[in-house]
Design a protein that fits this description.
Order of helices and strands: EHHEHEEEHHEHEHEHEHEEHHEH
Largest sheet: 6 strands, mixed
Distance between the termini: 19 Å
CATH topology of the largest domain: Rossmann fold
Number of helices: 12
Strand content: 15-25%
Strand order of the largest sheet: 2-1-3-4-5-12
Structural class: alpha/beta
CATH architecture of the largest domain: 3-Layer(aba) Sandwich
Number of strands: 12
Protein backbone atom coordinates (compact mmCIF):
# COMPACT_ATOMS: atom_id res chain seq x y z
CA UNK A 1 0.00 0.00 0.00
CA UNK A 2 1.35 3.39 -1.00
CA UNK A 3 2.23 5.67 1.89
CA UNK A 4 0.74 9.17 2.16
CA UNK A 5 3.10 12.01 1.40
CA UNK A 6 3.32 13.15 4.98
CA UNK A 7 6.60 13.75 6.79
CA UNK A 8 6.79 14.19 10.55
CA UNK A 9 9.80 15.72 12.27
CA UNK A 10 10.50 14.57 15.85
CA UNK A 11 12.41 17.36 17.60
CA UNK A 12 13.40 18.57 21.06
CA UNK A 13 11.33 21.52 22.30
CA UNK A 14 13.71 24.39 21.47
CA UNK A 15 14.58 22.89 18.10
CA UNK A 16 10.91 22.33 17.30
CA UNK A 17 10.08 25.96 18.09
CA UNK A 18 12.89 27.09 15.81
CA UNK A 19 11.71 24.76 13.03
CA UNK A 20 8.08 25.87 13.28
CA UNK A 21 9.23 29.49 13.03
CA UNK A 22 11.31 28.65 9.96
CA UNK A 23 14.48 29.77 11.73
CA UNK A 24 16.47 26.52 11.53
CA UNK A 25 18.36 26.58 8.25
CA UNK A 26 18.87 22.84 7.75
CA UNK A 27 15.34 21.83 8.71
CA UNK A 28 14.01 24.61 6.50
CA UNK A 29 15.98 23.21 3.57
CA UNK A 30 14.66 19.69 4.18
CA UNK A 31 11.15 21.12 4.41
CA UNK A 32 11.65 22.96 1.12
CA UNK A 33 12.63 19.70 -0.60
CA UNK A 34 9.62 17.92 0.89
CA UNK A 35 7.15 20.66 0.00
CA UNK A 36 8.43 20.76 -3.58
CA UNK A 37 7.71 17.01 -3.78
CA UNK A 38 4.13 17.48 -2.52
CA UNK A 39 4.66 16.44 1.11
CA UNK A 40 2.73 17.71 4.09
CA UNK A 41 5.20 18.47 6.90
CA UNK A 42 4.44 18.54 10.64
CA UNK A 43 6.58 18.94 13.75
CA UNK A 44 6.27 16.76 16.86
CA UNK A 45 8.01 16.44 20.27
CA UNK A 46 10.91 14.03 20.25
CA UNK A 47 9.68 12.11 23.31
CA UNK A 48 9.54 8.39 23.91
CA UNK A 49 5.74 8.48 23.83
CA UNK A 50 5.74 10.21 20.44
CA UNK A 51 8.36 7.85 19.02
CA UNK A 52 6.27 4.86 20.10
CA UNK A 53 3.30 6.34 18.25
CA UNK A 54 5.56 7.04 15.26
CA UNK A 55 6.34 3.35 14.84
CA UNK A 56 2.75 2.68 13.75
CA UNK A 57 2.04 5.88 11.87
CA UNK A 58 1.76 5.89 8.12
CA UNK A 59 3.91 8.22 6.08
CA UNK A 60 7.53 9.16 6.77
CA UNK A 61 9.56 10.54 9.66
CA UNK A 62 12.80 12.35 10.47
CA UNK A 63 14.15 12.14 14.04
CA UNK A 64 16.82 14.38 15.49
CA UNK A 65 19.61 12.21 16.90
CA UNK A 66 17.31 9.36 17.97
CA UNK A 67 16.71 5.94 16.38
CA UNK A 68 14.31 5.89 13.41
CA UNK A 69 11.06 4.29 14.63
CA UNK A 70 10.35 2.30 11.45
CA UNK A 71 11.68 1.48 7.99
CA UNK A 72 10.26 4.69 6.50
CA UNK A 73 12.09 6.87 8.98
CA UNK A 74 15.51 8.48 9.07
CA UNK A 75 17.66 10.27 11.63
CA UNK A 76 19.50 13.52 11.13
CA UNK A 77 22.33 14.95 13.14
CA UNK A 78 24.86 17.75 13.06
CA UNK A 79 28.32 16.57 12.03
CA UNK A 80 30.30 18.08 14.92
CA UNK A 81 29.98 21.71 13.78
CA UNK A 82 27.43 23.84 11.96
CA UNK A 83 26.45 23.96 9.13
CA UNK A 84 27.33 20.32 8.38
CA UNK A 85 24.70 17.57 8.72
CA UNK A 86 23.98 13.94 7.94
CA UNK A 87 20.69 12.18 7.14
CA UNK A 88 21.04 8.46 7.79
CA UNK A 89 19.09 5.26 8.41
CA UNK A 90 20.81 4.79 11.79
CA UNK A 91 21.46 7.07 14.74
CA UNK A 92 24.79 5.29 15.36
CA UNK A 93 27.61 7.26 13.76
CA UNK A 94 29.78 4.19 13.12
CA UNK A 95 27.02 2.74 10.92
CA UNK A 96 26.80 5.80 8.68
CA UNK A 97 27.72 5.73 5.00
CA UNK A 98 30.79 7.87 5.63
CA UNK A 99 32.09 5.46 8.28
CA UNK A 100 31.89 2.57 5.81
CA UNK A 101 33.33 4.47 2.85
CA UNK A 102 36.98 4.48 1.90
CA UNK A 103 38.93 7.73 2.06
CA UNK A 104 41.46 8.48 -0.69
CA UNK A 105 43.36 11.72 -0.12
CA UNK A 106 44.73 11.66 -3.68
CA UNK A 107 41.20 11.85 -5.09
CA UNK A 108 40.43 15.14 -3.29
CA UNK A 109 40.92 18.45 -5.13
CA UNK A 110 44.13 19.74 -3.53
CA UNK A 111 43.68 23.48 -3.87
CA UNK A 112 40.02 23.39 -2.89
CA UNK A 113 40.72 21.12 0.09
CA UNK A 114 43.52 23.37 1.35
CA UNK A 115 41.34 26.47 1.02
CA UNK A 116 38.41 24.73 2.72
CA UNK A 117 40.56 23.46 5.59
CA UNK A 118 42.20 26.85 6.09
CA UNK A 119 38.85 28.59 6.29
CA UNK A 120 37.30 26.17 8.80
CA UNK A 121 40.51 25.86 10.82
CA UNK A 122 40.47 29.60 11.41
CA UNK A 123 36.69 29.63 12.00
CA UNK A 124 36.73 26.83 14.59
CA UNK A 125 40.16 27.04 16.24
CA UNK A 126 40.53 30.83 15.92
CA UNK A 127 42.83 32.45 18.51
CA UNK A 128 43.68 29.07 20.02
CA UNK A 129 45.99 28.52 17.03
CA UNK A 130 48.36 31.05 18.60
CA UNK A 131 48.95 28.61 21.47
CA UNK A 132 49.79 25.41 19.56
CA UNK A 133 52.75 23.60 21.11
CA UNK A 134 53.82 20.17 22.35
CA UNK A 135 54.06 20.21 26.12
CA UNK A 136 54.76 16.47 26.36
CA UNK A 137 51.47 15.22 27.76
CA UNK A 138 48.64 12.97 26.58
CA UNK A 139 45.16 14.45 26.57
CA UNK A 140 42.42 11.92 27.42
CA UNK A 141 38.94 13.50 27.11
CA UNK A 142 36.48 11.19 28.84
CA UNK A 143 32.80 10.82 28.08
CA UNK A 144 30.26 9.09 30.35
CA UNK A 145 29.94 5.65 32.00
CA UNK A 146 33.69 5.33 32.39
CA UNK A 147 33.77 1.98 34.18
CA UNK A 148 31.53 0.31 31.59
CA UNK A 149 32.47 -1.13 28.20
CA UNK A 150 29.68 -0.24 25.81
CA UNK A 151 28.92 -1.99 22.52
CA UNK A 152 30.88 0.47 20.39
CA UNK A 153 33.94 0.46 22.65
CA UNK A 154 36.90 -1.92 22.60
CA UNK A 155 37.35 -1.52 26.37
CA UNK A 156 36.00 0.67 29.16
CA UNK A 157 37.35 4.23 29.43
CA UNK A 158 39.08 3.29 32.70
CA UNK A 159 40.83 0.41 30.96
CA UNK A 160 41.75 2.79 28.13
CA UNK A 161 43.61 4.95 30.66
CA UNK A 162 45.43 1.87 31.95
CA UNK A 163 46.43 0.90 28.40
CA UNK A 164 47.64 4.43 27.76
CA UNK A 165 49.77 4.44 30.88
CA UNK A 166 51.23 1.02 29.98
CA UNK A 167 52.13 2.17 26.47
CA UNK A 168 53.57 5.53 27.58
CA UNK A 169 54.88 5.09 31.13
CA UNK A 170 57.04 8.22 31.10
CA UNK A 171 54.49 10.74 29.81
CA UNK A 172 52.01 12.82 31.77
CA UNK A 173 48.39 11.84 31.18
CA UNK A 174 45.69 14.45 31.71
CA UNK A 175 42.22 12.87 31.75
CA UNK A 176 39.27 15.25 31.73
CA UNK A 177 35.68 14.75 32.84
CA UNK A 178 32.91 16.01 30.58
CA UNK A 179 31.01 18.91 32.18
CA UNK A 180 27.67 17.65 30.81
CA UNK A 181 28.07 14.03 31.98
CA UNK A 182 27.04 12.61 35.35
CA UNK A 183 29.61 10.39 37.05
CA UNK A 184 28.75 7.85 39.72
CA UNK A 185 30.54 7.35 43.00
CA UNK A 186 31.93 4.13 41.51
CA UNK A 187 33.30 6.05 38.53
CA UNK A 188 35.05 8.57 40.74
CA UNK A 189 36.38 5.89 43.08
CA UNK A 190 38.01 4.08 40.13
CA UNK A 191 39.57 7.31 38.89
CA UNK A 192 40.83 8.23 42.34
CA UNK A 193 42.37 4.75 42.75
CA UNK A 194 44.18 5.11 39.43
CA UNK A 195 45.33 8.62 40.21
CA UNK A 196 46.45 7.74 43.73
CA UNK A 197 48.91 5.16 42.43
CA UNK A 198 50.17 7.22 39.50
CA UNK A 199 51.79 10.63 40.07
CA UNK A 200 51.85 11.27 36.30
CA UNK A 201 48.06 10.94 35.96
CA UNK A 202 46.01 14.09 36.45
CA UNK A 203 42.20 14.29 36.40
CA UNK A 204 40.44 17.57 35.67
CA UNK A 205 37.02 18.88 34.72
CA UNK A 206 36.82 20.29 31.19
CA UNK A 207 39.80 22.32 30.00
CA UNK A 208 39.52 21.58 26.27
CA UNK A 209 40.63 25.00 25.01
CA UNK A 210 43.72 24.94 27.22
CA UNK A 211 44.74 21.33 26.70
CA UNK A 212 43.96 20.64 23.05
CA UNK A 213 46.45 23.12 21.52
CA UNK A 214 49.30 22.00 23.79
CA UNK A 215 49.00 18.22 24.07
CA UNK A 216 51.27 15.75 22.26
CA UNK A 217 48.34 13.65 21.14
CA UNK A 218 44.82 12.62 22.10
CA UNK A 219 43.49 9.29 23.38
CA UNK A 220 39.74 8.80 23.50
CA UNK A 221 36.87 6.46 22.79
CA UNK A 222 34.85 8.62 20.38
CA UNK A 223 35.08 12.18 21.71
CA UNK A 224 34.69 15.01 19.21
CA UNK A 225 37.90 16.41 20.71
CA UNK A 226 39.73 13.97 18.43
CA UNK A 227 37.88 15.43 15.45
CA UNK A 228 38.79 18.97 16.50
CA UNK A 229 42.37 17.85 17.05
CA UNK A 230 42.77 17.85 13.27
CA UNK A 231 42.60 21.65 13.23
CA UNK A 232 45.64 21.74 15.53
CA UNK A 233 47.58 19.01 13.73
CA UNK A 234 47.20 16.73 16.76
CA UNK A 235 47.12 12.95 16.12
CA UNK A 236 44.57 10.84 17.96
CA UNK A 237 44.10 7.23 18.98
CA UNK A 238 40.49 6.08 19.26
CA UNK A 239 39.31 3.03 21.20
CA UNK A 240 35.70 3.13 20.01
CA UNK A 241 33.82 2.92 16.74
CA UNK A 242 33.26 6.30 15.12
CA UNK A 243 32.50 7.91 11.78
CA UNK A 244 35.84 9.77 11.50
CA UNK A 245 38.12 6.77 12.06
CA UNK A 246 39.87 7.02 8.67
CA UNK A 247 42.69 9.34 9.78
CA UNK A 248 42.85 8.22 13.41
CA UNK A 249 45.09 5.60 14.99
CA UNK A 250 43.25 2.44 16.04
CA UNK A 251 43.95 2.10 19.76
CA UNK A 252 43.37 -1.65 19.53
CA UNK A 253 46.52 -1.99 17.37
CA UNK A 254 49.37 -2.06 19.89
CA UNK A 255 52.07 -1.16 17.37
CA UNK A 256 50.06 1.71 15.88
CA UNK A 257 49.16 2.97 19.34
CA UNK A 258 52.79 3.00 20.41
CA UNK A 259 53.61 5.17 17.38
CA UNK A 260 50.66 7.56 17.66
CA UNK A 261 52.80 10.58 18.54
CA UNK A 262 54.47 10.42 15.13
CA UNK A 263 51.23 9.76 13.22
CA UNK A 264 50.51 12.27 10.45
CA UNK A 265 47.55 12.38 8.09
CA UNK A 266 46.30 14.67 5.34
CA UNK A 267 43.78 16.47 7.51
CA UNK A 268 42.97 19.09 4.85
CA UNK A 269 41.96 16.48 2.28
CA UNK A 270 40.11 14.50 4.91
CA UNK A 271 38.05 17.40 6.22
CA UNK A 272 37.03 18.36 2.68
CA UNK A 273 36.00 14.77 1.95
CA UNK A 274 34.26 14.23 5.30
CA UNK A 275 32.34 17.51 5.37
CA UNK A 276 32.02 18.97 1.91
CA UNK A 277 31.79 15.71 -0.03
CA UNK A 278 30.18 13.19 2.31
CA UNK A 279 28.03 15.45 4.53
CA UNK A 280 25.44 18.10 3.73
CA UNK A 281 26.62 21.70 4.04
CA UNK A 282 23.40 23.52 4.88
CA UNK A 283 24.96 26.82 3.83
CA UNK A 284 26.01 25.61 0.38
CA UNK A 285 24.09 25.73 -2.90
CA UNK A 286 24.32 21.92 -3.11
CA UNK A 287 22.35 21.37 0.11
CA UNK A 288 18.89 20.71 -1.29
CA UNK A 289 20.17 18.45 -4.07
CA UNK A 290 22.04 16.38 -1.46
CA UNK A 291 19.02 16.27 0.83
CA UNK A 292 16.82 15.09 -2.05
CA UNK A 293 19.38 12.42 -2.96
CA UNK A 294 19.52 11.14 0.64
CA UNK A 295 15.74 10.92 0.91
CA UNK A 296 15.40 9.29 -2.52
CA UNK A 297 18.06 6.70 -1.67
CA UNK A 298 15.97 5.78 1.39
CA UNK A 299 12.91 5.21 -0.79
CA UNK A 300 11.10 8.50 -0.15
CA UNK A 301 9.10 9.69 -3.20
CA UNK A 302 10.85 13.03 -3.67
CA UNK A 303 11.93 12.77 -7.33
Amino acid sequence: MAQPKRARFYLEDDLRKSAVAGKHNFIARITSVLHSAGFEVTFHPNTMAERIKAAGRRGYALCHMTPPPNARSLTFRRVYHYPFWQIQASDQRWEWDVARAGFDAAACPRAEADRFFGFWRKRIAGPLLDHVADDDFIYVPLQGRITEQRSFQSCSPIEMIRKTRAAFPDMRVIATLHPKETYTQGDMAELEALQGGDPRLEVEMGGRDRLLPRCSFIVTQTSSVAFDGMFFGKPSAVFGKTDFHHVMVDGRDADAFAAVRAHRADYAAYLWWFWQNMAINAGHDSAEAKIRAKLAAAGWPVV
